[in-house]
Amino acid sequence: EPKMADNFVKSVLGLLALFLFQSNVAYQVGWVLGARNQRFQQRHSQLFSAKSQPPQTTTQSSKYLKDFENQYDSFFLDQFGVIHNGTHAYQGAIEAVERLAQRGKRLVILSNSSKRKKTGVKNLRKMGFNPDHFCGFVTSGDTVYEEMISRAREPFKSLGTRCVVFGNADDDKAYLSEMQCELSTIEEADFLLARGNFVILDAVETTKCDRSLESEARVAAVLAAAAARGLPLLVANPDIARPGCGSPMPGVIGKQYEDMGGTVHYTGKPHSSVYELCFQALEEDGGNRDRVCAVGDSLDHDILGASRAGIESIFIIGGIHSEELGIKEGGRECPSQKALEKLYARHGGGVPTHSMPAFVWED
């Protein structure tokens, strides 16, 4: 009996050692994969969370949008990285939108742009898109504006009117004025607003920002002063990196402030409020919430947001993750299924229902 007990103890210890070894290996592999591209690093806790929910293996790949013609009645379309690059429409995107509209599909633009709807519509028209093809146009910037004007619910109801702004260096002052808010010093501010990474605006000065260490130090100093006062940060664009150049977006500021212990309120994908606005746009146009598909290029925003909203999704491969996949942004190259599965596993935010190289109807 003592011998049997001794063998039993050895077996238990052996199993425990094997478990700890495998856990350590899993951690190391997850860390290495996440560190391969600093713009898309995930916290190791998120990686383990992804492991607890095995990636969906039924993602269907297709080259053309026409393959989904009979599967969906409505589409939520991302802008940057899907239909245009900020200045020009991608090849085939204008035709794809026209074909969907001709077939009676309801289209809603759903963008993390921090600008107002009116600016987005104007830009689409300038690039050659017909705004009449869209029954709704939802941007995170317009959503923040509407919420701040109505002050009907938290956190907007209690934010105050005086703020320091991380801006886009374009329409920041006009946006703030329309929202009935004003610039303030950090000592007198009620909140911080992040809608860009190009300037810091307060009541005294406008400071340009770039990707230098000096600029990073300025941003960190503003955040530290705000955290010391317990100010909330309102992020009007949760994106992390800009398609094409990889420059940081306001979501980076949000993550940095969270790491300091600050309170952050995000508006935009993957958060629920903007999806509810899209569904409302469909219903106002005579549609419903059935057979809806979201199209986007960000796994962490478009695909995760669609999953949370309970709708299917199409992942556009040649967008924000193109560099990570080693392909040309805006092109039609399709990586191997194995490469895509590794990408989904690294991000762990959700696996798309379908994937396409680019937003095109057909060749």
Automatic annotation (TrEMBL):
GO terms for molecular function: phosphatase activity. One of its GO terms (cellular component) is chloroplast. This is Uncharacterized protein. SUPFAM superfamilies: HAD-like. It comes from the Eukaryota. Signal peptide: none annotated. PANTHER family: 4-NITROPHENYLPHOSPHATASE-RELATED (PTHR19288), OS08G0542600 PROTEIN (PTHR19288:SF90). The lineage of its organism: Eukaryota, Sar, Stramenopiles, Ochrophyta, Raphidophyceae. It comes from Heterosigma akashiwo (Chromophytic alga).
